[in-house]
Amino acid sequence: MQALMFFPHKPAQSICLAMAVAAMLCLPGLASGQEWARKMFTEFSHDFGNVAKGSFVEYKFPIKNIYEEDIQIESAVSSCGCAQVSLSTKVLKTWETGYVIAKFNTQAFSGFRQATITVRFARPFLGEVQLNVKGNIRSDVTFQPGAINFGQLPLTSEGKSKSVRISKFGNPNWRIVDVKSTYRHIKVRLSSPNPVGTSVNYDMTVRLTDTVPVGFVNGELFVVAEERGRRVEIPLSFSGNVLAPLRISPDVLIFNVKPGQEETRKLVITGDEPFTITCISSSDESIEIVHSDQAKKVHIVEARLKAPEIGGEIKGEISFETDLSGGAVQKMETTVQVSDE
User: Fold this and answer.
1) Which CATH code fits 246-338?
2) Structure pTM?
């Protein structure tokens, strides 16, 4: 077996030490060779706790490249089919952060399960790090659906609620006493228990509040139940994307030009209903915006630049005002980089 290599180095410094490589190839052990890779992790284990059968449960282990060289991840594999593993990226540049994503397979497995995830590195050196996950998949408790997905919805949408059926099998006296949330812009309404034979069902309505901000929504609800004189918490994940009334693509307007050069960029401005652009103001006078006066849901406008004759970087902002309800305004940052090169 090939020996793995360890180099006592500082973060963001090179780990390509040719003489050290030659010396370390003679080491018979593997343990010391993992240290350079382990330093990129802050967590090595995660306990999912009690989870419902069929629910969506995952955890992301962050990995940050603290070195000058690019880090290439060769693979990430699990010792058990109860944990499915994926990578957010296989290449990390200096200071970039990626994730080793462990998803608990609650569909195919039940009971207490644990797995070792082995993350293998190909560059700048061979190496590997072990991560551990565990949890108890309860076949007597189910959520339908197994996760709440609000999807993409406008900020002003009325359809911000989802329903979940919670079922407990084998004990009609099982009771939910509380539902906790990691996200303050969410409300929950729980029905009275509905015993059916040896089981009991609850219907839960989960709603995003009117205070929910624009952007991605991610978190967990914790269903708290009393069992045998103690309380247990069972997580239920939720996600979604709340859209602004007015959206601009791209998010940032960037020009890289030579002095005096003229260039044009197209911007796409989208609303939830037909609208008119009533006013456009730019803090950078070298950028002119040409648009239509018609009312429509999607506007394609032109940003025309006449670069200044002097090199340098100019940062600014463009503000778009509309006749949408509440006079929706959207702003975007601009960067003009003028260089002779």
Assistant:
1) 2.60.40.10
2) 0.71
